[in-house]
Write a structure and sequence with these properties.
four-stranded antiparallel sheet; alpha+beta; single chain; about 425 residues
């Protein structure tokens, strides 16, 4: 297999800087700033060697993702704008002939399964081995039986941050199988669908497709889920440095525990409004009919459900407006739309603080952003809300001071500067 290289060869190439141009595209840095990324891969190679010995290997990377537009719109078959980011999951992997799939993730027990045992195991629900089994099963269903492989993974995608560490892992498994056993037959979008299948059918989580699509495709991508089984998408250009801004993710430090009901209530209430108007999801509802029916909907569904539907219609439309602003090189308009999305999340979607919770860390983080940016840039809740992270566009000239102040106010190392990454699922020595 031409893609395979010895570990020693990879180490020598990394140390010589032979892969620096590739790493620069992945992580958005040059010169000495690349050194920590070289060292991270070298460390992963050492981890693989310690676990699986000397083998000919491939080095893979899959980016995390950040939501740029469309907060809680995807589950209503709406539109989203998302971006692959410079935080990623790295995998060192090698095919084997023993019929076993083995994945050792740094800091976790090794997952081991037989390549012929592809039935759903209910006891594996919500465990990583279920994703491994589901990925292999889907490849077999599509005509590409997966033989054995071993993989060692390490990730710096922040868990519980809305940056999709789990989706990156799922797409990574698909990328490995695609390389070793399908000769690259599947496109990034198809790998995303395989990942969703594994999560839905084997892991036991009825997720949408946004996270997997963004992780697999990379860059900035506008996705329309009007046909959720086959969403349409297109790439959009966004050069933050050229616009003079940094994209920051701020971890609020709020606890996700006991928030399942709060998250589940949003799609449930939106669907209740759709059902009252004879539809399954809000994307199928005529917006004019919704506004006419507001008095009836308040009685049938409650005020919060109606407000959340208002958010959907506005934020879904904003995605197209954000794309148009970027394509017209009107970053000022784009920022206004980002801020409007954030204001709608606070006022209408109401995913800043869960009912009955004393946690207000997300609201505090948003307040600090308002104070520190003082009318410049933009900020919004990111991902599911209630806990987790917020997102801020910060002028480059004040980025260091902004991060220092956020770290002081919300906790050390809470503020992370992200780069938009042009590639999603990738192998170190393949061409773009």
């Amino acid at each position: 297999m031409e893609q395979l290289h010895s570990i020693s060869s990879c180490e020598a190439q990394l140390r010589s800087g032979a892969y620096d141009s590739r790493l620069s595209r992945w992580y958005g840095c040059k010169g000495n700033a690349i050194l920590p990324y070289r060292e991270r891969i070298l460390s992963a190679l050492q981890g693989f060697r310690a676990q699986y010995g000397e083998r000919d290997i491939c080095i893979f990377s899959v980016s995390g993702r950040t939501e740029l537009g469309g907060n809680h719109t995807d589950h209503q078959h709406g539109c989203v704008l998302a971006g692959g980011i410079s935080l990623d999951i790295i995998a060192i992997a090698a095919p084997t002939e023993d019929g076993k799939l083995c994945v050792k993730s740094e800091g976790y027990p090794e997952d081991v399964m037989a390549a012929v045992d592809l039935d759903i195991h209910p006891s594996e629900s919500e465990q990583s081995i279920a994703l491994l089994r589901g990925t292999a099963a889907r490849f077999r269903e599509l005509g590409y039986p997966v033989g054995g492989f071993v993989a060692y993974t390490t990730s710096n995608v922040l868990k519980g941050s809305g940056l999709s560490s789990s989706a990156a892992f799922e797409v990574m498994l698909g990328k490995i199988c695609n390389t070793f056993y399908a000769n690259g037959a599947f496109s990034p979008a198809e790998l995303a669908m395989i990942a969703q299948y594994a999560e839905n059918q084997y892991f036991g989580k009825p997720c949408g497709l946004m996270d997997q699509m963004a992780c697999a495709l990379g860059g900035v991508v506008a996705i329309d889920f009007a046909e959720p089984r086959k969403p349409s998408y297109r790439q959009v250009t966004l050069d933050l440095a050229k616009e003079g801004y940094a994209l920051c993710i701020i971890d609020s430090g709020a606890d996700h525990a006991d928030l399942t009901d709060a998250y589940a209530a949003i799609p449930r209430e939106m669907r209740s409004v759709a059902a009252a108007l004879g539809k399954e999801v809000l994307r199928q509802v005529d917006e004019a009919a919704f506004w006419t029916a507001v008095p009836k909907l308040r009685r049938a569904c409650g005020d919060r459900a109606v407000l959340r539907a208002m958010h959907f219609f506005a934020d879904n439309a904003r995605v197209g407006e954000q794309v148009a602003a970027l394509e017209a090189h009107r970053f000022d308009v784009y920022l206004r739309l980002v801020k409007a999305s954030g204001e709608s999340s606070v006022a209408n979607l109401q995913n800043i603080r869960a009912d009955g919770s004393e946690q207000q860390a997300v609201a505090i983080a948003l307040g600090l952003c308002a104070h520190l940016l003082d009318g410049k840039g933009a900020y919004r809740v990111h991902g599911g809300g209630f806990a987790g992270t917020i997102q801020a566009y910060v002028p480059l000239g004040i980025c260091d001071a902004f991060c220092e102040a956020m770290n002081a106010g919300m906790g050390a190392e809470c503020c992370h500067v992200l780069q938009i990454r042009s590639e999603g699922a990738a192998m170190l020595w393949e061409t773009e």
